[in-house]
Write a structure and sequence with these properties.
Elements: H1 42-53, E1 62-63, H2 65-85, H3 95-106, H4 109-115, H5 118-128, H6 133-145, E2 152-159, E3 162-172, H7 181-184, H8 188-207, H9 212-231, H10 236-239, E4 248-249, H11 251-257, H12 263-269, E5 277-279, H13 282-294, H14 297-312, H15 318-332, H16 341-352, H17 354-365, H18 368-390, H19 397-408, E6 411-415, H20 433-449, E7 454-455, E8 471-473, E9 478-482, H21 497-502, H22 504-514, H23 535-553, E10 556-558, E11 561-562, H24 569-592, H25 603-615, E12 618-619, H26 621-630, H27 636-644, H28 648-653
Parallel strand pairs: 3-5, 6-9
Antiparallel strand pairs: 1-12, 2-3, 3-7, 4-5, 8-9, 10-11
Amino acid sequence: MRCFKPLFVLLFLPLLMQGQTTSQHGVQTGDIDRKADPCTDFFQYANGTWRAENPIPASMPRWSRRWQAGEDAKEQLKVILDDVSKRIDWPKGSPEQLIGDYYGSCMDQAKIDKLGIAPAQTMLAQIDAIKTPAELQRMIRQLQALSVSAPFGMGSMPDNHNPGETIATIYASGLGLPDRDYYLKPDQRFQEAREKYATHVTNMFKLAGYNEASAKAAATTVFDFEKKLAEASLDNVALRDPRATDHKTNFDALTKMAPSVDWAALFTESKISRADLNVTEPKFLAQVDKQLHDTPLPDWKTYLKWQFLHASADSLSSPFVNENFAFYGQYISGSKELKPRWKRCAESTDALLGDALGKKYVEKYFPPQAKARAQEMVTNILAAMHDTIEGLEWMSPETKKKALEKLSTFNPKIGYPDKWKDYSGIKISRDSYWNNQVAAVKWNVDEDRSLMGKPTDRGRWGMTPPTSNAYYNPLLNEIVFPAGILQQPSFSVENADAINYGGIGVVIGHEISHGFDDQGAQFDAQGRLDNWWTEADLKNFHQRTACVAHQFDGYFIEPGIHHNGQLVLGESIGDLAGAKIAYLAFQKAKKTNPAPTIDGFTPDQQFFIAWGQWRGDEIRPEEQRHMVQGDPHPIGKYRVIGPLSNLPEFASAFSCKADNAMVRPAADRCEVW
């Protein structure tokens, strides 16, 4: 069963802690390629030796110290899960019982393999038995309760215009390929992907009991149906514009927008109030309505069986897992082998029971002094952003006032939530991994639906505490840093300030900057989708962001394939501004806590090297092509050299000359914040 994910997945005290002591843990000197020139290729210089000595593991599509840290966090989860799963007498409903029995059932590979397709047969038989349009719609609702979002999805989200209220959001879904362009673009790589996908869908149907001819015919039916959905979908660049997906409506208007969908039954069975809601893509919903008339019932049944198999593959026996990996893991991302069973089970436990597992994680791996240190850094970097905004020459006082108001309402969340989710209603046992998946997924879907039509709970988190990642949510104006990312090598209470500010500090600055990137800048201090700019300032802002888009348009991963500057614009603004304001915060910190030269590197050199070592991913060619097509993040190489080549402070730290490759000419230099 595909793990349920909420739809978005999105304090100001300018003071410095006094009397802080700094250890001597500096940069990873062994990672540095000293044959490389930092002013020519800083990506190679900062981490070239590490990448040469640490090839991408067979189970990973990319690798760096940053990704290694994320996998190390799963090793930490394994310690916890191995320990709690040894006991089978935990109190029923306790966090230990839930995560221990869930993980234990997941680890019973022999039992799962013996069952084969059997756990999914009941649902497949029910789909086969559909005889009427009403039964078809009932099945769509059943599948959505299992987080099989086909042909559309529904999740909770704060209202774009009143973030204090959470509403239902209906969004485009139901595709098996990564996005619409895989169905529509004529490029050879997309044609190849379509051929590989047809083979994959055929193989999955064969595993489900179809013969060769019927499996091929089913795969053709699936692709043809999904292509119609793709034709009515927005592309990845359009999806980045919050106004393009802002279509607030009410229940009555929804029933007129897609009258063939039984919305009354969906909302009633889901226990969702018929309050205001948002439809992200009305054109897509119109296509769904059209296909409820135009597509024959047998084709709908084939499509729904595929979507169920697709969502369930990793919960079934090894042949299904292996076939699913062969397409998505190997072909799309380039990984060579599956992750070990324990790691996949740890990831699944975290995805579905993340607060129960997260509570154990932070108790063991995130001490109070780490949280205090991270909070101090966030405060300092917010202060640096405040100074940056105040000092802008291109922004009028009127817009500055609004920007500073927004900054003052930022809500940082560090490490873990103040209130843990209560999973006591979930029935988990050691007997059946499939039943545990169903129970946990249903609980998460129901819990998300329970938020709709109610005041927004600002204490909720969109990531679990062990997650090695971070995010900014513009509707809540919050920056969130789970305990899983506040680990070595980017952050430690034992690191020199230069390492913490150059590592996690740039990440903190990056997330703060998202509040003022091309998307975040459209939301005001209250999180409302509302323009707070003067016309002249907004024009100036767009000219500056266009510089960044143009820069990244020029970054190629191979001949003929380059980044789409508009797709990666928000993340690239975040990296550029994040590096700048983290550097400024580090300069302030040095005034009260002088930074030493370590291993011959000045404090400023350490700062920039720390970023290059944290972000320096080696990425498989397949994953690079996948990212360039649909990921709003640039590949690691350009996340290192792109922002730093715009910073005079970097050039000064390494005594670079004006004509060096890592120094963009003044006329081409990009600066947004």
